[in-house]
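Thread: Newbie trying to understand structure tokens

Hi all, I'm a second-year student working on a class project, and my supervisor (Dr. K.) asked me to get a predicted structure for one chain before our next meeting. I've only ever worked with sequences, so writing a 3D structure as a token string is new to me. If someone could post the tokens and maybe explain what I'm looking at, I'd be very grateful. Here's the chain:
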Amino acid sequence: MRLSTPLKLVFGHHTIYSGSPTHGDNPALIARLAPILEARGVTAYVCGHDHDLQHIRVGAVDYICAGAGSESRKTGRRDGTLFAAAYPGFAVFSTTREGLKLAFRDTSGATRYAATAPARGG
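---
Reply by user tm_fold:
Sure, no problem. This is what the structure looks like when written as tokens:
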């Protein structure tokens, strides 16, 4: 399988955008990093700092937090939230012709949420 547009993924520890009442949005990363991700055609930013599972889309970038592997904390929603849950779980990624396929699974391995972050040109 060959994608017609490349996937660009960036991995970090801290969330940029977050609905978590513990940490919430990171103003410094929103100001300094988010514009670079958008300008460079990044498909998704993946992190795990918050102990929850979140999928947020701001502009054309998908922000995925998969930090609930060891414990989970209360989460919340913010503008752009497509999914947020506070249960122990993990993320599984694969590529498709459409982009980056995301599945959040619980500790039994059952898929609790699935979505695709569209590939972007550039």
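A couple of things are worth pointing out once you decode it. The longest strand covers residues 99-106. Residues 9-118 form one domain. Feel free to ask follow-ups in this thread.
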